[in-house]
């Protein structure tokens, strides 16, 4: 065709590539060329997927669970998930292709063009892009110096165009676990203003004693206005299975199911049987992994604080380190992240990806020995001026 390719839709031109994907891809390319790269960039602990999950998935394959299933999810899995929420039944659960698809679909069914969604900042990389793909506008509201919610700022950000407030605790990228008082205050704001309150709780099992995870659903004066999104990916090391779910009022689930019937249809049938097995496992396994992650958190936080200023880190498996003191004039944390990768062979994610400039996100999902080697490289690189 003369003049080049036909044009793309404006909506995709407005969406940025994921910084996490960009760093991960570059690290993989460097590894392929023989470089020894330590990745502290990927939000995925190095634990194996538990054997009962693998066995149940293989059994489902052997039993012929390979055909289309119900769009909203296998009935047994929906019932089991509903049992985790007081007073819920299966019609309040939708199984999705990971939490990421759940959130994307939510913005599609909740938002019209020009609507607004309030996001505490820093925030996960895909929130803003997914909101924009729905034709809506992300409204970023700063957290405090410890990355905790500021209900007053959130209240002031509400306008007649506000459709939802999104809360992510434990938080990616900061590791902050939001306090019950602040969560209750935000839940009250959402109820009073009659806007949806979306709780992204993908990391809900990973807190380390400093502050427990508090489900916002139990704090809201209008629980049918709360939408909870969770995932099997982090909790059970099932990232490749792509199993997430939404717990919400039946009307929300019906709207999401209608959309999902035209997008993905059902989630992978046999993978859902692996998810069902995950829910029947001895909780002690997750407890042991939480203990291991806490040890890694303590090690990584100590090493990070010897180099940077760090707040948050009460949950998930991230440290959001303030590296502004180590930035050269005119440079960003994205520049520092590239220098760390190229010069020190350590991959981290720049804070710009999360609307938190001057920071880097460090994942402590790898083993303690690897963490020690990574921070030794970072320390040496900073000492030499990178």
From TrEMBL:
Keyword terms: Aminotransferase, Pyridoxal phosphate, Transferase
Cofactor(s) recorded in Swiss-Prot or TrEMBL: pyridoxal 5'-phosphate
CDD domains tied to this protein: AAT_like
GO biological process per UniProt: amino acid metabolic process
Top-rank taxon: Bacteria
The keyword Transferase is assigned to this record: yes
PROSITE patterns to which the protein is assigned, alphabetical: AA_TRANSFER_CLASS_1
GO molecular function, one term: pyridoxal phosphate binding
Residue span(s) of domain Aminotransferase class I/classII large: 36-378
Enzyme Commission number(s) of this protein: 2.6.1.-
Family membership noted in the UniProt record: Belongs to the class-I pyridoxal-phosphate-dependent aminotransferase family.
Name of the protein in question: Aminotransferase
Species whose genome carries this gene: Desulfatitalea alkaliphila
């Amino acid at each position: 065709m003369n003049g080049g390719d036909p044009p793309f839709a404006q909506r995709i031109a407005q969406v940025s590539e994921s910084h996490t994907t960009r760093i991960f891809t570059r690290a993989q390319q460097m590894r392929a060329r023989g470089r020894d790269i330590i990745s502290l960039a990927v939000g995925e602990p190095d634990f194996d997927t538990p054997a009962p999950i693998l066995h149940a998935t293989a059994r489902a394959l052997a039993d012929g669970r390979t055909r289309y299933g119900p769009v909203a999810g296998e009935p047994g899995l929906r019932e089991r998930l509903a049992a985790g929420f007081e007073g819920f039944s299966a019609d309040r659960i939708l199984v999705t292709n990971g939490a990421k698809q759940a959130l994307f679909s939510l913005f599609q069914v909740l938002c019209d063009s020009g609507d607004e969604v309030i996001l505490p900042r820093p925030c996960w990389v895909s929130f803003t892009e997914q909101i924009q793909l729905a034709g809506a506008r992300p409204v970023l509201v700063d957290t405090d110096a410890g990355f905790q919610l500021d209900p007053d700022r959130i209240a002031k950000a509400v306008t007649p165009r506000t459709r939802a407030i999104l809360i992510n605790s434990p938080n990616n990228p900061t590791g902050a676990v939001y306090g019950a008082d602040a969560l209750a205050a935000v839940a009250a704001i959402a109820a009073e203003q009659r806007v949806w309150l979306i709780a992204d709780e993908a990391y809900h099992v990973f807190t380390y004693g400093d502050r427990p995870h508090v489900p916002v659903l139990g704090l809201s004066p209008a629980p049918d206005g709360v939408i909870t999104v969770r995932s099997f990916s982090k909790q059970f090391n099932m990232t490749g299975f792509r199993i997430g779910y939404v717990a919400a009022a039946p009307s929300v689930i019906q709207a999401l199911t209608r959309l999902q019937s035209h997008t993905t249809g059902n989630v992978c049938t046999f993978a859902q049987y692996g998810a069902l097995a995950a829910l029947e496992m001895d909780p002690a396994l997750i407890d042991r992994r939480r203990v291991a992650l806490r040890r890694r958190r303590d090690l990584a936080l100590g090493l990070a604080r010897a180099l940077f200023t760090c707040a948050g880190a009460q949950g998930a498996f991230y440290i959001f380190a303030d590296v502004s003191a180590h930035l050269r004039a005119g440079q960003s944390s994205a520049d520092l992240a590239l220098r760390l990768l190229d010069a020190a062979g350590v991959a981290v994610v720049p804070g710009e990806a999360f609307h938190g400039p001057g920071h880097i996100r460090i994942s402590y999902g790898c083993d303690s020995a690897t963490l020690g080697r990574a921070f030794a490289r970072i320390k040496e690189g900073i000492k030499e001026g990178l």
